[in-house]
Design brief:
about 130 residues
Length: about 130
């Protein structure tokens, strides 16, 4: 069972590393997705990319995993509220916004589950 958990944890983390790299390599694409009220568009995208890469590495190597997963869940919640919910009201993008909203909601749930699993392991290990 431990092998399944390890495989699942790594499979969960890898896409976030790729999403982070995409944020660094495709800044112009992501600028078009930002709402007008989000300041520092290029800086925000680069910072988000670095945060995604850091979370991915942290989850894979099991260092600060609880903190990383909680911060990742918060970041995903911010994506939902600032990008996906506003796009729900755009007729051209409403279906894709709903799909992205549901995807990020599921990923947020996964991050919180991993944080909970590793909180339990820390408590059992007396850390």
């Amino acid at each position: 069972m431990k092998k399944l958990t390890t495989i699942g944890r790594i499979l969960f983390a890898l896409p976030f590393g790729i999403f982070g790299l995409n944020h660094l390599l495709m800044i112009d694409f992501y600028i078009g997705m930002l709402s007008t009220f989000i300041p520092g568009s290029s800086f925000t995208i680069i910072l988000t990319g670095l945060a995604l890469i850091a979370a991915s590495i942290s989850i894979i190597i099991k260092k600060y995993i609880k903190l990383s997963c909680i911060l990742l869940a918060i970041l995903l919640f911010i994506f939902i509220m600032t990008i996906h919910v506003p796009n729900l009201f755009n007729d051209k993008e409403s279906i894709m916004a709903l799909v992205a909203l549901l995807k990020d909601t599921a990923l947020m749930g996964g991050a919180l589950m991993i944080a909970g699993i590793y909180q339990k392991e820390e408590n059992e290990a007396g850390i």
